[in-house]
Write a structure and sequence with these properties.
single chain; 252 residues; alpha+beta; Rossmann fold; Tumour Suppressor Smad4; 6-stranded antiparallel sheet; 17 strands; 39% strand
Length: 252
């Protein structure tokens, strides 16, 4: 099996890369059968973005602090683990944002798209789903739209729901909502489009981040799931992502 290694810039991951590439070789990404990511969840997200044009499966080995998208650290039997791994397709979010100057920014996100206030003043946002206004004014620190794969990340920290991979929904989760005070978010069918318009953008500026790409002073953001775009993650059978997401719901 031809492997291309994608490595985090940490001493632990780089040492593992030296050992594994010596044993298995480092193949060109265009010629490989699988991309093995050495690091944590952040490194996996970087690899998914950096290798977007190469339709190869990704297998992560955790050499970072967080490894929800990764497999446990083992250097032995890598070929066997790759051959026996189960595949999980994940669909990213497509984000289109327009800033105050009228410039359009586009990006994809595998975890979430988040809007955050830039100053001390709370954000004021209008929420629409499939062109239907659902909340005329949400006063908050921000809001995020999460995929099932990303629902255990920032979304969970913001008290959002954990989503099974097969749920076909996105989590729309407010961050420190002030009004409507009791609104805790919504589950949106993944085939629907979400639009967020910024109210008083000159007085209350907002930034938007798609995974790690940030754009500032936005006035509107549109988000939808990319149904025709998918990446394949590989997991050891006993470490399947669907099972890990299920277990996460029963942790205290």
């Amino acid at each position: 099996m031809k492997i291309h290694f994608h490595c985090a810039k940490t001493a632990k991951a780089e040492e593992a890369y030296k050992t594994l590439s010596k044993s298995f070789g480092q193949n060109d990404i265009k010629d490989c059968d699988v991309i093995v990511v050495l690091g944590g969840d952040g490194t996996m997200l970087d690899a998914l973005h950096d290798c977007a044009k190469v339709k190869k499966p990704f297998y992560g080995i955790n050499y970072g602090s967080v490894g929800f998208l990764m497999n446990p650290y083992h250097e032995d039997n890598l070929n066997s683990r790759l051959k026996n791994a189960t595949s999980v397709p994940i669909h990213p979010l497509q984000m289109k944002a327009v800033d105050r100057s009228g410039k359009t920014h586009e990006a994809v996100a595998f975890n979430e798209v988040s809007l955050l206030r830039e100053t001390r003043q709370a954000a004021r946002l209008k929420i629409s789903v499939d062109s239907v206004e659902r909340i005329p004014e949400l006063v908050c620190d921000g809001i995020l739209i999460s995929t099932p794969a990303g629902s255990t990340a920032y979304n969970l920290s913001a008290q959002g729901p954990i989503l099974p991979l097969s749920a076909n929904v996105l989590a729309l989760t407010p961050i420190s909502a002030f009004r409507p005070r009791r609104w805790r978010g919504a589950l949106i069918p993944s085939h629907l489009d979400i639009r967020i318009d910024v109210i008083d953008d000159d007085k209350r500026p907002i930034s938007v981040t798609a995974d790690s790409r940030e754009f500032r002073d936005v006035v509107s953001v549109e988000v939808k799931q990319a149904k025709d775009d998918a990446r394949t993650l590989l997991f050891d059978p006993e470490h399947h992502l669907e099972e890990r997401i299920l277990k996460e719901q029963f942790l205290s």
